[in-house]
Give the backbone structure.
Amino acid sequence: MTIYFGPFVVTRQVFYKSKHSFALVNLKPLLPGHVLVCPFRVVPRIRDLTAEEMADLFVTVQKVSKVIEDVYQGQSLNIAVQDGPLAGQSVPHVHCHIIPRKLNDLPDVDDVYKLLNSKDADIELSFEQLKARNRAMISPDVPDSERQPRSEEEMWTEATFLASQFTTSGKL
């Protein structure tokens, strides 16, 4: 089964699936462990989801959050939805960002919101950059404008590892 995030095929980036939702690793994570949870049905806004899809999406967010927080030794999580282009949504497909947080991971705790809304977080631009240069991600202490998209292989490796955590973590 081919899985789409908006117009993009992301099947190899997916590490968890439920009845109506999936979780995938991020092309350009803002911090280590930054993943996305999306409904299988490609719809642009939360209001477009059925009640069953909505419930499944947030149960999936909860399950994935537990594993991500453990795997990346997070002390807290940012869980964010940018619902529409004026809210900063760069791909017209409902998605929840899950970002594990640690003390002093950014200069200011709220800097994550600036990063989420930056031009550099634009996934369409990121996919174009991936095509142009298949380089590894630069560490998070590098300015946001210098972060590079990860390669398909890097994302597949992380997705495979995270998928294995759902059977070994005891969190589900």
About this structure: Helices lie at 51-71, 111-116, 123-132, 152-168. The chain has a mean pLDDT of 86.
